[in-house]
Amino acid sequence: MQWETVIGLEIHAQLATRSKIFSGASTAFGAAPNSQACNIDLGMPGVLPVLNQEAVRMAVTFGVAINAEIAPRSVFARKNYFYPDLPKGYQISQFELPIVGKGVVEIELDDGTLKPVGVTRAHLEEDAGKSLHEDFHGMTGVDLNRAGTPLLEIVSEPDMRSAREAVAYAKKIHQIVQYLGICDGNMQEGSFRCDANVSVRPQGGPLGTRAELKNLNSFRFLERAINIEVERQIDLIEAGGTVVQETRLYDADRDETRSMRSKEEANDYRYFPDPDLLPVELDGGLIESVRAAMPELPDARRHRFERDYALSPYDASVLTASKGLADYFEQATKVAGDAKLAANWVMGELSGALNKAGMSLDASPVSAQALGGMLLRIVDNTISGKIAKQVFEAMWAGEGSADQIIDARGLKQITDSGAIEAVVDEVLEANPEQVSNYRKADEKKRPKMLGFFVGQVMKQSKGKANPQQVNELLLKKL
Amino acid sequence: MSLERSDVEKIAHLARLAVSEDELDAVTSDLSNILHLVAQMDAADTAGVEPMAHPLHMAQRLRPDEVSETDQREKFQAIAPLTEDGLYLVPRVIE
């Protein structure tokens, strides 16, 4: 039987506000446990939630970016369930009237074609706290600093047909929220979390029963978990079993999904409008001002990079994958004045060094200005590309700016033709056999043979001779 | 619409309310009566009336995004049954 996979994603993006969605407590990550959980976050009797206008503006920004309908009136509802990291016994969320309605994003498939993926809705809600199950004398520790952090839950249509498509969509949303500056996108810290609804069906048949996968805190795990869940469901059905609707946890260590809650009442949330919060009414002014302030989005930036910097589609897409990288590239290019060179260095040496060190771009010891400054020295022939790699390594190690390193190490390229000529003469004198071979050789073989002399000259000059001049001089003298 | 005893048991469990065997019949009947009242109201013609999410004809006021709360953990935890290292301790929950 030909099986078809159907996937929808629920993405929780923590909004990058300073304070919580309904209280004035800080949202900063990594504070001492419960030092940022105020009486509203703790659900103390008599407190009232007051909505953060920045969270509303960020939700609207996302909606406008994906061309979604923005609800002029949206309503907060209580989602009732009991868990220790949810002190009120309910989560304030949106149910019937979410702030962002239907929208669409385009993903690029492996073969390069574009596919639209529908966004059903995006709604505002509060995050829960964190439960720590390590040993507290057989008890669970609860940190409520995260409780009340604003979340935008972005729900997709079941439009994806493979794990690869699901990852492409998740990456797209990740890219958009970061470009918009509404979420830092940090998956390790849980600022951007994906749940996947996965089902299988005979090709083109009616939808199968879905399982919801949780604990997918990287794109790699997202892809892996979907693939093994699809396999599990197909095996189950082919063996005569049926898929039950349930939440399954992905266990990366064991590389399996396993059932998390099976209690049938677990999904009975008894939503009702929160009497503590009035309906949110948006005036057209907010939507208009969001539209006017809309930053350049990833696709537009990618096209601009291809057009304005004459980059290949591949280079443009790599460099615009994250806003940080795109900003870095543009700053370096601005200093160096050579986009292609900057692109090669950002995607090559810089990305390589970051990968090797397991560092993120914002922790890079070499700033965009610093890299641009070094590239400028390649452009103006102060150093060759080869020497530049040495300079880059020294910059990475914190030895100073490119100019300081070039000075301190005496790496300035030799462009004085007299000095280069002296080295060339020396090399020719030291290798009479090669010289006579070269002179006897066929025209076609000569370019390859010339490489030997160039190499010797570069070696003698410790890589500092200008390669172009070396070539010219050698050709003249041979 | 009337509720069964089993409905009430289920709702009570979801709300973590302890309704004893003796109370169950009375609660079932009371809750059913409330639903009957709602059903009666449901019969009213509300075509053209905009559904309300709140009895007040007002919109939510928004607050500027500013941190205004200070750390008062000690005060809050003074009334908690059990804490350790700044964490609230609760009976073990593992899914």
Description:
The complex is a heterodimer of chains A (478) and B (95). Chain A has 478 residues and is of the alpha+beta class. Chain A has three domains: 3-286, no CATH class; 296-409, no CATH class; 417-477, Arc Repressor Mutant, subunit A (Orthogonal Bundle). In chain A, 40% of the residues lie in helices and 20% in strands. Chain A has 15 helices and 16 strands. Chain A has helices at 53-65, 163-179, 219-238, 284-292, 298-308, 313-319, 323-336, 339-357, 368-379, 385-396, 402-409, 417-430, 432-440, 446-460, 467-477, and strands at residues 3-14, 51-52, 73-74, 76-80, 90-94, 103-108, 114-126, 130-136, 139-143, 150-156, 192-202, 211-216, 246-251, 256-261, 272-273, 280-281. In chain A, strands 6-7-10-1-11-12-13-14 form an eight-stranded mixed beta sheet. Chain A has a three-stranded antiparallel beta sheet with strand order 5-4-15, with no helix packed on it. Chain A has a two-stranded antiparallel sheet with strand order 3-16. The mean pLDDT of chain A is 92. Chain B has a domain at 5-42. Chain B has a two-stranded antiparallel sheet with strand order 2-3. Chain B is flat. At the A-B interface, strand 2, helix 1, strand 8, strand 9 and strand 16 of A face helix 1, strand 1, helix 3 and strand 3 of B. Strand 2 (51-52) of chain A pairs parallel with strand 1 (62-63) of chain B.
